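Hi,

I'm pasting everything inline rather than attaching a file, because the server keeps stripping attachments. The sequence lines come first, and each chain or strand is labelled.
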Amino acid sequence: MAVADYKAPSTVSEAVSLLASAQMKAKVMAGGTDLIIQSKSQTAEPLLVVDLKRIETMKDYQLTDEGLSLGPAMCCAEFTALEDVKAVYPGLTEAAYLIGSTQVQGRASVGGNLCNSSPAADTIPALIANGAQCVIEGPDGDRTVPVEDFVTGVGKNCLAANEILKRIVIPRPAPGTADAYLRFIPRTEMDIAVAGAGVSVTLDADGTCTAARVGIGAVAPTAMLVPAAAAALVGTKLDDTALEAAAKAASEASNPITDRRGTVEFRRHVVGVLVKRAAKIAQSRAQG
Amino acid sequence: MSEAQDYKYIGQRTIRPDGFDKVTGRASYGADLSLPGMIWGKTLRSPHAHARITRLDTSKAEAMPGVLAVAVHSDFAAVSDEAIQAGEGSANLIDLASNILAKNKVLYHGHAVAAVAAKTEALAEQALALIEVEYEVLPPVMTALAAMAADAPVLHDDMFTTGLEETPDKASNIANRVEFKIGDVEAGFAEADVIVEGTYKTPTCHQGYIEPHACTVRYDEDGQSMIWCCTQGHFDVRTSTAKLLGMELSKLKVVASEIGGGFGGKTTVYQEPVALILSKKSGRPVKMVMDRDEVQLATGPTSASHNWVKIGARKDGTITAMQGKFIYEAGAFKGSPVMMGCMTAFTPYEVPNLYAEGFDVVVNKPKVAAYRAPGAPQGEFAAEMAVNELAAKLGMDPIELRLKNAAKEGTQTIYGPKFKRVGLVECLEAARDSEHYKAALAENQGRGVASGFWFNVGGQSSVVINMNPDGTGTIVEGSPDIGGSRASMQMMAAEELGIPLEKLKPIVADTEMLAYSQGTGGSRTTFATGMAVIEAAQDVVRQLKERAAALWNVTAEQVDYADGVAYNTAGEDKMTCAEICSKADRTGGQITGRGNINARGAGPSFAVHICDLEVDPETGKTDVIRYTAIQDAGKAIHPSYVEGQLQGGAVQGIGWALNEEYVYSPEGKLENMGFLDYRIPVASDLPMIDTVVIEVPNAFHPFGVRGVGESGIIPPLAAVGTAAANAIGTHVTELPLSPPRVLKLVQEKG
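And the predicted assembly:
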C-alpha cells in the first residue's frame, strides 16, 4: 500500500462519509502503530488514510454509574493514567499498559488494538471479561456488537468498509467484582502475547463467586469468551479445584497453532495457567 | 612493568571523546552519508533455501525508466580461487563473491541473486520485481547432522572433505576435519574412577547489532573510488573489495563510519563490492542500506553446533582425560569456526590427555560470520556443562573442581604453546569467595557457574600522532571504535606524553591517511593498537627531547622528559611539551610520532560467571535473578568500558542460552526475522550484571593489557544451562532454554 491521500475529519459522521465516498482503498487510522507498518508492504496499491485523532469524541471518556464510555482512539498512555477507570477496571488498564513500549503507547489506542483484530491483541480478552460493547457508526446509523463478536478472524472484524467503531461501552460491574489480565511472553516487554487471559469475577459477602467472565487470547484465530471456564468458577470460592477446572476448560476451548512464538501444546497449557492466575488476582482485588 | 605504578590516566573513568556526538545524534553512521547525484541500490534475494538458478533475465529491470544499473555474479569476472584475510579468519574469494551475489545456485533463503540501482529507493524496489529468475528447487539441508548423512543432497559438487588421511573422491557437505590432541585419552579414561559424557546442541544465533549494514560508494571516471560504510575493519573492506573487483589498493579509499555494533559480524563484506559495481556501471554514487530482515537473512550468523564431550576423573577430582567431537555448521560456504571450538573447549583445564575432533559442515543457511570469540561459546558450552555434571557426580563443588584442574602458567595447551602467566585461578577464587556464590537460593531457583577461555590476538596496527604548534595533538589510528577504544588510546598517549588528556584528540583515519591496520576484532584494539599508540607517543617523546636538546645546545641524551616537561640535565633549563612544539619550526619542522607494529604476545583472558535463575514450573519461563561476571583484564585502561565489555558479553551469552535461535520452516525458510521474534534480551529482562575485574598483568604489554571483548560471551551458555538444570532438577543438553523447551523439561521430570 502507498499512502495516496490523507484526511483528518472533525466528526465521526464526516469520517463515515469519507469512507463511503472513497475512490480507492481506505483505512482508518487512530494511533497508526499497526497501520504505518502495514503500509510499508511492497504493493503500490494507493491508499486513503482517514485519521480519527482530530475527532474529540474519539478520544474522550465518561465514567458514570452506568459504566465506562470510551472514545476508542484515546492513546494508551492517557488511558492507563485514568485513575478512576483503573479503580473500576484494573485488568483492562493493565492490558492496555502492555501494548508496545512507552513510546508506542503515546500513539496506540484501545480501539486501534481492537480494530487491528490480531489474535494476540492484549486488550480484547480484557474487554471480553468486562462484557464490553462496540458502538459502530455507518451511513445508516449506529449499531452495537458485543466485543466477543466484533472480531471475526485473524485481522478481520465485523466493520464494513464504511463503518467506524465510535465508542467502547463497558457496563459498571456489580458490587464485589474485579478483573485481571495476564499474558505470557518469553521476555518482559517489547513482545507479543503467546497466550493471554482476562478474567472478571463477582464475589458475594462470604467470598463465593456469583458471576464470572473469562476471555482468552493468542490461542485461537480470535480472542474468545470461554463460558465453560466461567461456569467452573461460579458457585465456588475459587479454590484450587475450581481454578484447575477453569484452567482445563480454557485449555480445551483454545484452538492454537504452532508457530515461531510457541507450540500448540505449550499454548494450550499456558492459557490455562494464565486463567487460573488471573482469576486469583481478580479474586484478591474483589476482596479488596 | 606496570605493577604498583601510579598512573595519571590509566585506570580512570574519563569522559569518552566520541560521547557528545553520540548522545546528540550528530555522529554519522553507515547510512548517514549522502552524495550529490546519489542513487539507491537494492538486492533481490532468493525465496528458496536451496535451488539451481536455471534462468536469470534482468533486461526488463534494466529497461525500466529510472534504473541506472544492474549487478549479477558474472560482474565479478576477475575473481580467482584464492584465500584472503577476512575478519578473524580467512575466506575464499570465489565463495565470497558467490555469497554476495549467487553464482548458479542459491544456497539459503535470502541469498542475494542480483542488485539494482535506481534514482529512488522505491524505483529500485519496483525494478527488483522485474528481474526474472527461474529456479529448480532442491531439497534443503538444514542441520549439520542431516548434511553429513550419506544420502544428503550436496550443496557444492566440487567440495571434497579436507583434513582426512585420504581425500575422498565423492563430494560431500563436510568441508573439513580438524584434530588436536595431547597425551592419550584412552589411557586417561582407563585411569578414571568417574566418567561423564553427553551431547550438547546450540542453535543458529545472530550477532544482533542494532545498526544494519549500510554503505555509500562512488566510482569515478578516472578509476578512483570511495566506500563509506559501517565496518569493524575498513582496511579489510578495501582488501576484499579490491580483490573482488580487480583493483589496486591505492585506487580504493574506504572510510569507516561510526558503527552501531558489530560483534564480529561486520568483519566481512556484503553490499560494498556490489554497490561499487553499480556505481561503476551507472557513473553515480550509490547507497545501499539493508533492512532488519535482510540483516537476519543474509549476514552473520554464528554456527549451530552438535557436540559430544566425554570427561574422566579420579575420585579426588583430578581430571585424567577430556575428549570431544565438535560439529559446526558453516552455513552455505565452508569456514565455520570449529577449529577455534576445538582449541578452546578444554583449555581452562590442565589435563594431560586431551583429544578434540572438529567437522566443518555446510548447510542451507547464511554463511556464518565471526561472532564474539568465534567458535568458543559452542564448544565450551559442551565442555563446561560436562564439567558441572562431573562435579555433581563427584559430589564436589564446581568451583573447587575447576580450581583443582585449572590452567595456569606453564600449562600445555591443546593447540601448541604453554601458557605464560594467566588469571584463571584468580577469577575462580574471586567467584568462590564472592558474596553471590554464598547467597541462599529459594524454591525453583538454581545456580550455575562456568569458565571461559579466549586467546585474544595482536596483529598489525598503524598509528600516527601529529603534534600541533600549541602542544596539542591528534592521535590518528585505524581501528574502528566499537567499545570506547578512542578513549583508551587517548589515555595511553596522554600517560606516555605526560600531557592533559584533553590536549589529545583521537580519530579513526580512512585507508588513505594511514598504513594498513587490521580490523577491530579478536579483542585486539586496546592491546595492539594501544601498543602502536604507545610506540608513537614514545617516538614523539624522543623527538621532543631532540628538539629541546637542539634549543639548549646539548645532546638528546642530556635531556630528561617527565610529566610533559623536558629537563636539561646539564643545566637548569626546562621546557614544556607545548613550548617545544611552539618552537618546532626553528628545530626542523613539525613533530609526528609513528608506531607501525605487528603485535605479538596477546594475553589470554579467562572469565568465570555465576548465574542464579528462577524457573516458573507452570509456564517454563526463566528469569535470571542474579548474575556476576568475573574476568581477567590484565590492566583495565578504562574500567567502565572493561565492565561494559563484561556485561555486554554476558547479556549476549544469556540471550543465546535463553531465547535466541533461527526458526526455519520445513522448506528452509527463516520464520523469525526481526527483533520481535528473534528475542535478544531487552534491558528489563535482566538484572544488573555485576562485574569483578581481575588484573593479572600481561607481561607483553607496557601497561599489562589483555583484550577483554570476547571471553565474556563464553561462560553464560553453561552457567545459564546449569542454573536451569539445577532449578528444575534435570539435565540440560540443548539451547535455547525457551519457555516451551523448559516447560517440557519440567513436565518430563514430573
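The mean pLDDT of chain B is 96.

If the labels don't parse on your end, tell me and I'll reformat.
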